Amino acid sequence: MSGRLLSKGVHVSVLGFVANPGVYIMKSGSRVYEAVNAAGGVIDGADINGVDLVNIIKEGSRIYVPGNLPDDAGMAGAL
Asked: What is the pairing mode between strands 61-65 and 22-27?
């Protein structure tokens, strides 16, 4: 990737209860819900009530979609 291409996007980590956790390059001005969708959307057990889906993503953002399962705290360490 050229420096010019990288300047048009922001890097974001999408973790937790999403289909494909990982690092994504999103268009500048993208919102959290777009990054969650890029990661394949939420999976069963996701609790998006605490995730502000309309926030604009900033370079280096970390988006974590928690679960509503009792052992969610253990999953966070596995990611």
From this structure: unpaired
